[in-house]
Design goal:
single chain, 105 residues, 67% helix, elongated
Length: 105
């Protein structure tokens, strides 16, 4: 009776849901890896400098701003956080992440 069924003819919505969930997880992992890569790159570049810029009057470099923006923040947020953190990228990102988590609670 069912001998003429092909596997291709069988449609299962659960399989489609599983595939969607899997794709979402993969996308989140890629974004996390990209953020981690950008963050570790910024950290390594910051360590290369002998001392971070401590002069609050000097603006952050374009490279520093782009590193922070690469993690999903706007230019304005990046510049403000870098100024508040004396142009230390790691501290600026920490500041931004802590402020976004406080807003979401």
């Amino acid at each position: 009776m069912y001998d003429d069924w092909d596997d291709e003819d069988y449609y299962d919505e659960e399989d489609e849901d599983d595939e969607y969930y899997y794709q979402q997880q993969q996308q989140q992992r890629r974004q996390q890896q990209q953020s981690a890569s950008l963050f570790s790159s910024a950290k390594a570049k910051q360590k290369q400098k002998s001392t971070p810029t401590k002069n609050k009057s000097s603006p952050p470099s374009e490279e520093q701003v782009r590193l922070v923006m690469g993690m999903g923040f706007s230019r304005q947020q990046a510049e403000q956080a870098l100024k508040q953190s004396n142009n230390v990228v790691e501290d600026a990102v920490t500041l931004l992440l802590s402020s976004t988590s406080e807003k979401s609670t």
